[in-house]
């Protein structure tokens, strides 16, 4: 395949606007996969169970297809991108291997917050953008209105917009034509020095690391020796080929092509996303690499049964082989035992990982409250703290702490104008600043859409901001955010005491203005789940030496019987006594016996 018969593209869209469905249609139309019966949506590219459950794409998948137009055969490489705000790093990494992108917008929902962010990423990368309106089969579709939005927001000429239904297949051949006609072919010299760009990797038990590469120059063949620019390590190509959509070995990979390589790479840490590969003995100019994914949400993950730690650690290790953006560190807690502190790109990313641990590895786990990385500025150094335990108890200049800073994001919300006020309130409740808005359509519409922008602490959106946003806008608001640096803030460490002893696993970092509300809420929650003891137990929330909230768990008396949690607990304990295991699981904090499951209840209830 000469370069000018190759097109590399991705599909970019807001979540649920139909990316996977369109990808399926393209694969069908080009005969890469068999027609699914009656247009049923098979979504070949969404492989993981959690992706099917949640209907979101988590990991980018790539597929090559052949397409005949007139006398000529083309090789089209689709680089699928994940569709959620947490995964924007994966989106931009996939785009680096493309020359063009299909910007897919749902004709009934219009432009949404992530349509905006993916559009900007694609434009920054200099990609040719083909605007596509999807779901025109829906009675609620408003193609003209959405085209007007695309014109006003992106400056897209309405006559360039394709109309399709990925569901019925209408308009798909026009999409294939547009890919060939509008997207420039990759440039590259087959005679040049071999140079490839590594943009994704996965792990195979037998063959080791499988890397996805985009060939920039030169030809790569089996048996050749290549080196990584980043690690300087050398490898021999044992297998290469294209994704069609599964791996199909070929004899060579040509400039402009996208394909997979296996080269006896043993550790997935050797495959650096953004790395440049070259032939051993040849020098090449490296491709501009990527910033490594930065973990922004951290949480401790512990086994419900402490004996399961080795198994849990092994499962986490396995999972991180397929998801390299997760960072892992061992940690231990007096209350929960041995565990791991994991770093994620965002809170959805965390949920997805947790679900995969539970689904694919059958792990029973307790996850601590998520924390963002704070900067603690001391007189002589700055420390990033992503575990509340390491946060200073008191922020006091005499303690050499100058200040504390928290990560800030720039948030965009798109919402019908009738919800604008409600959304503004929500943002203000979450410490938003620089709140601004504009309308996305010119007047005359009954209900226009507004784009609300503001800056907000990341801390405010990791808990359940997204759920609130959805419920307070009747599901209409869409949301996206990007990192916007750090800002000085009045943060305090809140600890919880049981019978006057702190429970390390429950420490939180909160803004001072919210300490009362949060302290009271957690103390109530603890009061509800902690089983009564034979003596009275004070449950307190404290900041420094100040007690913010208190509840008292009254003593369990012999006449307490059925119906009460305490009674229930007693019966349960009798039963458990027969199992030796039970003793081991009890955690003793300030003379209070706490079943490990209580932590599960505390940490899983919102
Ligand atoms: P993520 O992978 O989560 O980003 O979502 P996606 O953009 O891949 O969306 P997906 O293809 O999963 O489609 C979302 C929903 O819209 C599914 O229920 C599809 O069946 C439906 N859908 C997709 N295209 C069309 C269409 O043209 N018409 C109609 N009526 N429904 C469609």
Automatic annotation (TrEMBL):
It is found in: Mitochondrion inner membrane. GTP binds at residues 13-20, 80-84, 134-137. One of its GO terms (molecular function) is mitochondrial ribosome binding. One of its GO terms (cellular component) is mitochondrial matrix. InterPro entries: EF-4 (IPR006297), EFG_III/V (IPR035647), EFG_V-like (IPR000640), EFTu-like_2 (IPR004161), G_TR_CS (IPR031157), LepA_C_sf (IPR038363), LepA_CTD (IPR013842), LepA_IV (IPR035654). The keyword DNA-binding does not apply. It catalyses: GTP + H2O = GDP + phosphate + H(+). Residues 4-187 form the Tr-type G domain. PANTHER family: TRANSLATION FACTOR GUF1, MITOCHONDRIAL, TRANSLATION FACTOR GUF1-RELATED. Belongs to the GTP-binding elongation factor family. LepA subfamily. This is GTP-binding protein lepa. The lineage of its organism: Eukaryota, Fungi, Dikarya, Basidiomycota, Agaricomycotina.
């Amino acid at each position: 395949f000469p370069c000018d018969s190759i097109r590399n593209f991705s599909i970019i869209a807001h979540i649920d606007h139909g990316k996977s469905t369109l990808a399926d249609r393209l694969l069908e139309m080009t005969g890469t996969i068999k027609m699914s019966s009656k247009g049923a949506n098979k979504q070949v590219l969404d492989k993981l169970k959690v992706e099917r459950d949640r209907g979101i794409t988590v990991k980018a998948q790539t597929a090559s297809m052949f397409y005949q137009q007139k006398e000529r055969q083309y090789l089209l490489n689709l680089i699928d991108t994940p569709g959620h705000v947490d995964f924007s790093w994966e989106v931009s990494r996939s785009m680096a291997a493309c020359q063009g992108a299909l910007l897919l917008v749902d004709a009934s929902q219009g432009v949404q917050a992530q349509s905006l962010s993916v559009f900007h990423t694609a434009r920054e990368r200099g990609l040719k953008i083909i605007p596509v309106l999807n779901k025109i089969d829906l009675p609620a579709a408003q193609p003209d209105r959405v085209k007007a939005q695309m014109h006003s927001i992106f400056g897209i000429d309405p006559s360039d917009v394709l109309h399709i239904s990925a569901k019925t297949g209408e308009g798909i051949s026009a999409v294939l034509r547009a890919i060939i006609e509008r997207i420039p072919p990759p440039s590259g010299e087959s005679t040049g020095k071999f140079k490839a760009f590594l943009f994704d990797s996965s792990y195979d038990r037998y063959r080791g690391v499988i890397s996805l590469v985009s060939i920039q120059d030169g030809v790569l063949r089996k048996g050749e020796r290549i080196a990584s620019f980043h690690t300087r390590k050398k490898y021999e190509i044992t297998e290469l080929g294209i994704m069609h959509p599964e791996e199909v070995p070929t004899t060579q990979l040509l400039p402009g092509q996208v394909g997979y390589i296996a080269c006896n790479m043993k550790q997935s840490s050797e495959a650096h996303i953004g790395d440049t590969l070259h032939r051993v003995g040849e020098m090449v100019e490296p491709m501009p690499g990527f910033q490594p994914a930065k973990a922004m949400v951290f949480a401790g993950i512990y086994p419900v049964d402490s004996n399961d730690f080795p198994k849990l650690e092994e499962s986490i290790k396995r999972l991180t082989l397929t998801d390299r953006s997760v960072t892992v560190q061992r940690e231990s807690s007096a209350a929960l035992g041995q565990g791991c502190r994991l770093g994620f790109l965002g809170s959805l990313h965390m949920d997805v990982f947790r679900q995969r641990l539970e689904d694919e590895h059958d792990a029973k786990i307790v996850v601590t409250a998520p924390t963002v990385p704070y900067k603690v500025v001391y007189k002589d150094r700055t420390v990033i703290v992503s575990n509340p335990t390491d946060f200073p108890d008191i922020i006091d200049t005499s303690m050499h702490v100058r200040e504390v800073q928290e990560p800030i994001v720039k948030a965009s919300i798109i919402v019908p104008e009738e919800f604008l006020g409600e959304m503004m309130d929500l943002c203000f409740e979450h410490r938003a600043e620089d709140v601004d808005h504009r309308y996305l359509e010119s007047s005359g519409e009954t209900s226009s859409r507004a784009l609300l922008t503001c800056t907000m602490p990341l801390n405010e959106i990791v808990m359940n901001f997204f759920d609130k946003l959805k419920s307070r806008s009747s599901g209409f608001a869409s949301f996206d955010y990007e990192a916007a640096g750090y800002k000085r803030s009045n943060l305090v460490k809140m600890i919880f005491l049981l019978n006057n002893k702190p429970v390390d696993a429950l420490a939180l970092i909160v803004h001072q203005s919210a300490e009362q509300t949060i302290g009271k809420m957690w103390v109530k929650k603890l009061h509800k789940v902690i089983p009564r003891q034979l003596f009275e137990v004070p449950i307190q929330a404290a900041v420094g030496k100040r007690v913010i909230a208190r509840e008292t768990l009254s003593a369990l008396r012999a006449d307490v019987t059925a119906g009460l949690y305490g009674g229930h607990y007693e019966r349960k304990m009798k039963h458990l006594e027969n199992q030796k295991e039970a003793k081991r699981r009890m955690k003793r904090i300030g003379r209070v016996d706490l079943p490990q499951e209580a932590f599960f209840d505390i940490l899983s209830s919102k």
